[in-house]
Amino acid sequence: MGNTAIEWADKVWNPTFGCTKVSEGCKHCYAEIISKRFFEWDFQDVRPVPHRLQEPYKWKSPQKIFVGSLSDIFHKKIKYDYIMEILQVIARNQHHTFMILTKRAERMDDILGIIPDEMLSSLKNNLWVGVSVENIKRVHERIIKLNHWHHCGFITFISCEPLLENIRPDLEMIDTGFVDWIILGGESGRNSRPLMINHAREIREYCKLHEIPFFFKQWGNWVYYDDQIQWMREYKRNLKKNSKYVFVDPYGDTYIRASKKMTGHRLDGHIYQEFPKRSDEKAI
Ligand code: SF4
């Protein structure tokens, strides 16, 4: 248990399980799909998983660990004391880097705000705190909650997966000098929504302009159709007319639906897999 195919992490650690939908990005929750496929537990029955608390101690070499890939640890059903236990494990495993990603930015902010100073100073060495944003509304609601933690010394990040709107103008409006890393990705699954190439390019250009490390994770199950790429040409040619495997976005760009293995993680032919650096300039 622990290894992951998630492109920006070495391990996943799930000391909590389950979640409930909170915003538009949750519509086709991947954690829920995976949970239904592999676990007998009810995904909506949010709970701590105490027997997993010790897992990070077993990994001797340094790992980048995504905390809570099958849940949101700041869900209101996860009690404060148990979240403290999770944070204690993180603080005591300084050789690892832990990444917590949440859509409950307000609760994360509240809880980090009341933990003891000693623990906080350990955590900022090896905990990255991130929020998911899928559209303009969530940009304004969640990103601002990272501001204080960046200035306290934490690495902060946002994950735009799935990205459903062009959020660049709103990122510019907020002036995200306190965001250290941006991850972008498309949606996977049977009913997934296409990631529009215009929106993806806007994020990439925003990162370039503001010198924010950019990680393009994957297309998901829809990929921008590029007729210069042979497999795409052949694939599209073999599709039936009016196929539900082809989508044209409001900008006139075309997408084809295919397996994640086929759609891959190249944006305009390039792989973007940048990571943030710590303030001591040591690359992670
Ligand atoms: S917050 Fe995350 S884990 Fe919870 S339902 Fe939404 S997408 Fe799924």
How does the SSE layout of this entry go?
Elements: E1 11-13, E2 16-17, H1 30-38, E3 47-48, H2 55-58, E4 64-67, H3 80-92, E5 97-102, H4 105-112, H5 117-126, E6 127-132, H6 136-142, H7 147-151, E7 155-160, H8 168-174, E8 181-185, H9 197-210, E9 214-218, E10 222-224, H10 230-237, E11 246-248, E12 254-257, H11 260-263
Parallel strand pairs: 1-4, 4-5, 5-6, 6-7, 7-8, 8-9
Antiparallel strand pairs: 2-3, 10-12, 11-12
Bound molecules: iron/sulfur cluster.
Give structural notes.
There is one protein chain. The protein is of the alpha/beta class. It has a single domain (11-221), classed as Alpha-Beta Barrel (TIM Barrel). It is 31% helix and 17% strand. The strands form three sheets. The protein has a seven-stranded parallel β-sheet. Strands 10-12-11 form a three-stranded antiparallel β-sheet, with no helix packed on it. A two-stranded antiparallel ribbon has the order 2-3. Helix 3 (80-92) crosses helix 5. Bound molecules: iron/sulfur cluster. Iron/sulfur cluster binds at residues 19, 21-22, 25-26, 29, 31-32, 71-72, 103.
